[in-house]
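User: Sequence in, structure out. Go.
Assistant: Echoing your sequence, followed by the structure tokens.
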Amino acid sequence: MRITGGIWRGRTLIAPKGLETRPTSDRVRESLFNHLSHRADTPLDNAIVLDAFAGSGALGLEALSRGASFAIFVDTSRAALNVVKRNIAALDAEPKTQTFPQDSQRLRSLASPATLAFYDPPYRKQLLERVFPLHHDNGIWAPQALLCIEHERETIPQFPFLDVERTFRFGDTQISVCRYQPDT
């Protein structure tokens, strides 16, 4: 697994061992970040990134490589967060990162709301149905933040405060890019 673009392009990342974590493939990550990089609203420039269900941290680290200013990594697995910390250290990215060893459902606040958030939860556990209302209520996202949600070929839960702008399909995997609209 490698960083696909930006200042750390080509740098190798490690992934947690076992089947608990399902890292986003390089091809899927590159396609998503190419889309984000070519948007008129430039969501990567100086972004505050939330990488919920972080796994290896590849999504948040890719965002930092491509211009984000800070990334927060959240995962319940200590093994996964240890891998995230090793990846952060290998890139000398410690000053631009923070890790939280907790369930995304327990995330109550951030020093600055996320302007770009990545969600790649374990499939078939309906975690987003519980996490999104809490993140909305707790001000985790900045108004107009982009949320990138990796999911199986199924619909994602619908919320009045999320507007699905685009969905990418890669075999059985989909990524939906949503705009956070807190006032709707």
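User: And one key feature?
Assistant: The chain is about 25% helix and 25% strand.
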